[in-house]
Amino acid sequence: MKQKYLFLFFFALVVSFNRAQTTYEVSHIPFQNYSATANSLATSDDMYSDYINLGFDFTFFGNTYSQMLISTNGYIVFSGGTPNGYSQWSLSSAPTIPDTSFSVKNAIFGCFHDMDNSSNVGSITYATLGTAPFRKFVLMFQNQPQYLSSCAALLSTFQIILYESYNVVDVQINDKPVCTFWNGGIAVVGILNEIGDIGYAPENRNTGVWTGHNEGHRFTPEFDANQYFYVKCDASSNGIQTFDFSVFETDLGIDAQSVLYFPTYADAENNTNAFASNQYVNTAPQESVFAFSGGVIYELKLAVVDCGVDFDADTVPTANEDLNNDGNLANDDTDGDGIPDFLDNDDDGDLVLTEFEYVFTGGRMSSTASVLLDTDNDGIPNYLDNDDDGDGVLTADEDYNGNYDPTDDDINNNSIPDYLDNAALSSASFEDTSIRFYPNPVKNVLKFEGIDLSEIQAITIYNINGSLVKNVSGATTNTIDLSGISSGVYLLKVTTAKSVLNYKIVKQ
User: Fold this and answer.
1) CATH number for the domain whose boundaries are 428-507
2) Would you give the distance in Å from CA 356 to the centre of its chain?
């Protein structure tokens, strides 16, 4: 379903600055490597770094940290390690997370497996990028050899990215091969709390044997509904702006007559020193004020930022990411993932980086184009459209090879990626008829409606190589049993006396 992009905010998506930190959502994100002028770490075997300063406060499972230790085996810990001391390497008998017996806790596993770069083939570097309050700490493991001489040619490259203010964790894996000769070939990606009883890992990336290539994973903490973030462009270049709190009232559906604003939490508790109006001029580029309404105290996190900075490096000017034009950058979240568009490098959540969907089909350096890309001419630019070719299949679902990257799928081999090609498998005819097949993707039983059974002469299903996998000569019910068909993408043809109609279906 496509999203209108002139009004994208809903109460359920209120963006909070800090969040309760017991529950995380794990999601796939587009692959993207960060580069930076970075600080280097020693790469001795099974070693922790000294304390590394993040450059900002980061909240992880409810606790706030400004430092951490980095292990040469692909993870970071916020407590429990010894600076410049030994770091755990063994996973051969490790449980999947969460588990209180896991050997490393209060940790982020970018790609925890036994590595040894004593030969200095690769590097471990880190940097803090961007400007407050939206900086990123980026930790880069580059070409790290796996342990044992027999596996030294197997190089692992991946990154861990921590977001200031939103406390989000990203893991970007460029390459992670398997060393079958050591440690059982086991690795893990995930996060784990201090006790070990709460933890998260992406699908198929928990403790086990797997390979990874050009894949991104995100761990997003749950929202705190009593905090609200309000970000304005620094139009006056002095860090001072007028904040209109009616924006907050509208977003949360609060009656303006029932809310009062205060400079401190204590004032809000005691009903003292209330502001005279809901128009407020900040005194610092970052500060908090407090609102009281209906027995609830809300923290309003105010920030004035330089909109000449492209915070998410997606090529969209920051000022243009205030899609609803209410002056608040933080309440525009097209894909509802909790990260506002001005900080999100995939605004529509379709697993294609915005920089490839804005005005550049091949990325920011590929063209000097200046016209918004809108492949299906539906009035919604590609970077805000989760069905770029208008074929009824979401862009993210056109990842037919299952690598979470729709840009390299071209089923009909016409050099046009399927997510931009509404002719792929003749799926355009879907919009020429009232027949609807559902659910799509489908697990076992495919249903359809919109046509009289007596009109159907045959239903045939072909795989992407053109081989017939199922034939229904006529139809006696409006269901098709697909339980015997392997997972994948298929072409479904409906033959009637008047026409042959083609559909694209995905079998899970």
Assistant:
1) 2.60.40.1270
2) 16
